[in-house]
Amino acid sequence: MVVHCSAFHYTIDMEPFHPRAADVDVPSEELALPQAECALALGRLDGLLAGLANDEKALFCMALLRAVLLTSLKQAGFIDTELRFNAWFAGLDRAPQESALTVCSATAVIRALLAELGHHPWKPLASAAQTIAAAARFGADRPAHAEEGLAEETGAQEVLAKAAGLAEQAGINDNTTLPFAGLARLNALLRADPLFAPVERAVKSFSLGDREVAIEQTAPRTPLWAVDAALGRLLSASGTWARPLPCPGAVTAEALQPQLWPGERALLTARSLHLSVTRICALADQARRRAALMGEQLGHLRSSARAPQVWTFLSAFAPLGLDQIGSAFRVSRRGTYAIGDALVAAGLARRETVKGKVLLVADEPRRDRLSPSLDQAPAIPRAAMVEFDAAMADIDRLLNGSSHQC
After folding, report:
1. E strands along 92-222, which residues?
2. Given pLDDT bands bounded at 50, 70 and 90, which one contains residue 152?
3. Rounded to the nearest 5°, which phi and psi values hold at 212?
4. Is the separation of the CB atoms in 314 and 361 below 8 Å?
5. What is the C-alpha separation between 183 and 272, in angstroms, rounded?
6. How high is the pLDDT of residue 373?
7. H-only helix segments in 171-306
8. Average pLDDT estimate for 112-131
9. What is the pLDDT of residues 205-236, one digit of tens each?
């Protein structure tokens, strides 16, 4: 905030002091290390994803989508996102609070992102987005006029399409597997685009006694969350990544400020991307640990069982109500009770009642809560379980054939 007081003719600058002077640019040797660290993190993540098993991919994608949605809402100006998201997702509370900085509703942002990522070329991520969309119950904050909500959602989808176009344009004709030249082109495109360029602060004047005071207000947020969602297109086009993943928090308004030197801008860009990719790597590591736990506690179940899929959702994304489980995983009401019983018995979940609705919440298992059958389950040979699954699949096919004949 900058305050100008006409009575004393002074200016108080309360902006955070930028560590770099504007007189000279960053020397190339100082830029090399952050870019090398960023490139190493990008390569590490690509290698981690290539080695994930199917259940680990499902857990990773659920956790990544939660990070994308929460980071996007916070970037759009919804400051209480972390506090309200779970209850809002279950339809038990209002959406995160809008402010003067937000340009569209939280529901529009979330629905547009889920619709976009539901068609992602990486199937595990697309499948996870579709499951989340099917489970969502954003019902407590529906607008009074349905056409108003539809217009906001359409606008958010157009923002995503514009960001995707800029990312693809920046990645054309890249002759190196390093993304930094493409990132520089993307920054230039964003600064030149009225939709994404930083908005100048408005000045509000008012009288304070016999003095006239002018205050620079915080500028509205530009939708950089959409660029985060599309940034993987650029990284994939340059050959840095095999999968065009979203990068929550990678694109910042600070790196788009017009007064920066090219080296300063490149330094900030590399640091923010490195931080984003490091967080995604942590999600991949976490997915492996969760998958090992799930295999230990639920490995005795049939391969077609829904309990592991539900726990994947609970542990990596959000709690679920029974109606959400039914619609997201296509099971009957009785099936939802059976899934809940299995997870509670395994010590992987607990039931909580919130505003009269029962939610299934992921829980850390404790040995003293495990049922005897679960304690004995790991002793069953894996080959015997595979043979049992095959036999049950044969029975299912026979039953299906009999029903068609009838």
Report:
1. 203-208, 211-216
2. confident
3. -105, 120
4. yes
5. 12
6. 40
7. 180-192, 224-237, 262-298
8. 97
9. 656 667 776 565 566 789 999 999 999 999 99
Rg (CA), the chain: 25
CA-CA distances (angstroms) from residue 280 to 65, 273, 351, 395?
Answer: 11, 11, 29, 42
Contact present, 374 and 393 (Cβ < 8 Å): no
> Tokens 């600070």 identify what position?
254
Q: ∠ CA 193-38-227 to the nearest 5 degrees?
A: 25
Confidence at residue 177, expressed as pLDDT on a 0 to 100 scale: 79
On average, the pLDDT of the chain sits at 83
Q: How would you list the strands of the sheet with 349-354, edge to edge?
A: 320-321, 357-362, 349-354
**What integer pLDDT is reported at residue 260 of this predicted model?**
92
pLDDT digits (tens, 9 = 90+) for 252-308: 999 999 989 999 999 999 999 999 999 999 999 999 999 999 999 888 877 678 999
243 residue type, one letter? R
Q: Would you state the pLDDT for residue 252?
A: 95
The tokens describing 395, both together, are: 């029975």
Residue 8, pLDDT score: 39
Four-point Cα dihedral 264, 266, 268, 274, nearest 10:
-150
pTM above 0.85, yes or no: no
Q: Is 54 exposed, middle or buried (0-12, 13-18, 19+ CB in 10 A)?
A: exposed
Give the tokens for residue 303: 């391969």
Tokens of 95: 């959406």
Asked if 59 contacts 312 with a C-beta cutoff of 8 angstroms, the reply is yes
Taken in order 240, 244, 248, 254, the sign of the CA dihedral is: positive
Q: Which of 6, 34, 55 is nearest to 311 (CA)?
A: 55
Q: Which pair of tokens denotes residue 338?
A: 């059976």
Q: From edge to edge, which strands make up the β-sheet containing 2-5?
A: 10-13, 2-5, 211-216, 203-208
Residues 37, 178: Cα–Cα separation, whole Å: 12
To the nearest 10 degrees (0 to 180), the angle between helices 180-192 and 262-298 is 110
The residue whose two tokens read 């096919």 is 397
* Kind of pairing between the strands at 10-13 and 2-5: antiparallel
